[in-house]
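tool_call: predict_structure(chain=1)
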Amino acid sequence: MDEQALILSALEGDMNAFNRLVLSYQTMVFNTAYRIMGDDQAADDATQEAFISMYQKLSTYRGGSFKAWLLRIVTNACYDELRRVKRHPNVPLEPESDEGELIESPKWMVDDAPLPSEVMGQSELEESIQHCINNLDDKFRMVVILVDVNGEDYETAASILKSPVGTIKSRLARARQRLQECLQGFWELLPENFRLTYEDN
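tool_result:
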């Protein structure tokens, strides 16, 4: 059964069809949430909220890219979770070790990266990239994740974030510049073509 048929069946109350949609997208939804939140528990919460919202709002889907429609729900769930975390600063965004110590910079970047429990073998460069992405403001981090990590085009990102394409391009340019500047603190880990020199400045 194709995706549109599953959607139609789910709209008619077929929970098996809805569950098949969830299974099709659960990895993408969790990975996107994890990249935004930087914490697996917060990503779990945002993922659960996203699928609840998907169930409640399925009747509002009006065609087009179902993936983009769902990504909009995911990013909104993450925004809500980020706001909740900021209202309760005692809840850390960074995960904790078994000893209760904060682990800086969860490791991810490549789209096919392993889940959080499997990231121990990732390189120091990936850790540095994650550290710098975590330091971006929410609005810049969202654009980088949608365009540079998930591979969405400007128009799709604009639709998901409900912003003009020009704003998306501007935020992405600023985000990339900030990432490049941040990564100079890890200069020795960078490929030569990513290193800023005196002449670049």
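agent: Confidence is low (pLDDT under 50) at residues 90-95, 102-111, 117-122, 193-201. Proceeding to next step.
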